[in-house]
Amino acid sequence: MFKIWAKVITDGKIVRQTVYENPGRFSYSGFFTYLADICEELDIATPVLLKSHIFSYAKFNTVSFIPRDFTEPVSYDKLVLENVVI
User: Fold this and answer.
1) Which of 6, 52, 74, 76 sits at 20 to 30 Å (Cα–Cα) from 12?
2) Which residues contact 78 (CB under 8 A, 6 or more apart)?
């Protein structure tokens, strides 16, 4: 089981958040699926996932998506995903 804390941030403040829980084992090959599920739950657009995003999450247990990572305009400053250590 793993958990990911997702935060939508505007002007340095969390405006929306959720904790994504999955009973299975974490795998980097399924990261886009986790990201899509999180974005659906937050009712926001899904960003483009690059290899650098996955490397950031693997190395630092966090990844940030800024407006240029989205294919459509967004009204917030960034989407941050953090690994919740159990």
Assistant:
1) 52
2) 8, 9, 64, 65, 66, 67
Tell me the whole-structure pTM to 2 decimals.
0.92
Q: What is the pLDDT of residues 15-47, one digit of tens each?
A: 999 999 999 999 999 999 999 999 999 999 999
- Tell me which amino acid residue 40 is: E
**E strand intervals along 1-86:** 2-10, 13-22, 62-65, 78-84
Show Cβ contacts of residue 27 under 8 Å, excluding neighbours closer than 6 positions. none
Rounded CA separation 76/14 (Å): 10
Q: Output the 3-class SS for 52-72.
A: HHHHHHHHHCEEEECHHHCCC
Contact 48, 70 (CB under 8 A): yes
- Average pLDDT of the segment spanning 51-80: 96
- Does residue 69 carry a pLDDT above 80? yes
